Amino acid sequence: MMILPMTLEHVPQIAMLEKICFSDPWSEKSICSELENPLSYWLVCVIDNTVAGYVGSQTVLGQTDMMNLAVHPDYRRRGIAQKLIHALIAELKARGSHCLTLEVRPSNLPAIRLYEGLGFAEAGRRPNYYSHPREDGLILRKEWVC
Ligand SMILES: CC(C)(COP(=O)(O)OP(=O)(O)OC[C@H]1O[C@@H](n2cnc3c(N)ncnc32)[C@H](O)[C@@H]1OP(=O)(O)O)[C@@H](O)C(=O)NCCC(=O)NCCS
Hints:
The protein is 30% helix and 39% strand. By secondary structure, the chain is of the alpha+beta class.
């Protein structure tokens, strides 16, 4: 298992995982454009040449938003999401970011358990943030001292 920065070769598999995991998936083109964005930092977990999971983030003025996180159903409950977030935070610390914020569906208990276990705390709610199906977005945040 390797955790690596995303490169062009990972994009088609990430787009496929987006379709498997989300009702509103990012397109291959949007994922590709993240490679050109200096604010963005994405990591992949590669197992036997397969992208088993990924996390995507954007940092503005020392504050980072986690935009995507998914692990292929065949590779879940092996600690991959935890490893991706730990690796992301280590890199964000090195880059001078001091917090990581994300939105999650209140119905997404696996993800909420994961984030709670990593020390994220509730910071608010965005009404009707999600569509397909419509649902509020729970805002979670983790802060650290650089
Ligand atoms: C949420 C998701 C990323 C978790 O990935 P994962 O690699 O399976 O998670 P991990 O193995 O690192 O799990 C770490 C901890 O999170 C919690 N957790 C993860 N999946 C869980 C589940 N299905 N039920 C309950 N707790 C769960 C557990 O506490 C787990 O620790 P444990 O296995 O020792 O009990 C994965 O289920 C996924 O891709 N879901 C679909 C996409 C998604 O919802 N992304 C998040 C959007 S905000």
